[in-house]
Specification:
Length: about 325
């Protein structure tokens, strides 16, 4: 397990617990009471730390290297039924954006999301989860396919942003994202969107329009990352913590401002501490949303989605 800077007190106690248990195994000394005391203190420390996280600490947790990424979510949700589909039929297959068909609890879904990669080689292969225009066009192709066959869509958002390179701009990055938002607003099948990690800028919005939008507890969703915001306002990345607070990017901020529908709770310590529980909870929220949406007519579905997004940003003078 890798630890973040604010998790070091937990690491120290876990190391003490391991040593205590090792002494008990290798000698005749009874260390049961000592181990129980350390376990109790460990639990108290975890609760104290994770119940009082700052916005920046939640950003750090959303990027934790042990956190489950899109493919791991899909594999566990579909239990071996996932069939990946490739290509945008225009340029190439973008490895940062994955999508395909799979079954969750016997119901077929089109699953789409950004994949970051779990090591250096895979991160380079997946372009660190930053999709090019062909990635968004592939996502749209799969959504239109789902619409044709009446299959609901699930999108899993986890990206530091759309790829900002020159080639991406030449191939119409902005247009591809805008087209996706436009088409998703009027897609004639249910769309369930879940922020499972980072939800940055237009890169997230390109697959982020949904009838139900959920965020895992320790994720963030914002027009810009704290580091980039800090570099623009203060000409330095040193103020990223202040930027994170000012951006109001946590799941609780998003829920408060009615920009998402619900927060999906994570196990104590984050999704990576108990992946099985995380996957089960995500599945429960998916099926709950699907059961709420499946009885709506096409006209009701699209009208409710349009109304939902039209209300965002309203204010009273």
């Amino acid at each position: 397990m890798e630890y973040l800077d604010f998790e070091l007190p937990i690491k120290e106690l876990e190391d003490q617990l391991d040593k205590c248990q090792l002494i008990g195994q290798e000698s005749d000394v009874d260390v049961t009471n000592t181990c129980k005391q350390i376990e109790k203190k460990l639990e108290e420390t975890k609760k104290k730390i994770y119940k009082n996280l700052t916005a920046w600490q939640r950003v750090q947790l959303s990027r934790h290297p042990n956190r489950p990424y899109t493919l791991e979510h899909i594999t566990n949700l579909t239990k071996g039924t996932f069939l990946e589909l490739h290509g945008d039929r225009g340029f190439k297959d973008d490895k940062a954006m994955i999508g395909g068909l799979g079954k969750i609890d016997g119901q077929s879904f089109m699953l789409i999301g950004q994949q970051k990669g779990i090591n250096t080689k895979m991160r380079q292969y997946r372009n660190f989860g930053m999709a090019n225009p062909e990635g968004y066009r592939k996502a749209l192709r799969l959504m239109k396919m789902a619409e044709k066959f009446g299959i609901p869509v699930i999108t899993l958002v986890d990206t530091p942003g759309a790829y900002p390179g020159l080639e991406a701009e030449e191939r119409g990055q902005g247009e591809a994202i805008a087209r996706n938002i436009f088409e998703m607003c009027r897609l004639k099948v249910p769309i369930i969107t879940i922020i499972i990690g980072e939800g940055a800028s237009g890169g997230a919005l390109g697959i982020g329009v949904g009838d139900r939008v959920y965020m895992l507890e320790n994720t963030w969703y914002s027009v810009i990352s704290p580091e980039s915001c800090s570099s623009i306002l203060w000409r330095s990345w040193e103020f990223k913590e202040q930027a994170a607070e000012a951006l109001k990017l946590t799941s609780y901020d998003m829920k408060k401002h009615k920009l998402i529908d619900e927060i999906i709770p994570e196990p104590l310590g984050g999704a990576h501490y108990d992946k099985e529980t995380t996957f089960k909870t995500v599945e429960q929220y998916i099926m709950k949303a699907f059961n709420e949406l499946k009885h709506l007519s096409t006209e009701e579905l699209v009208a409710q989605r349009m109304d939902k997004y039209s209300k965002m940003g309203e204010f009273n003078k």
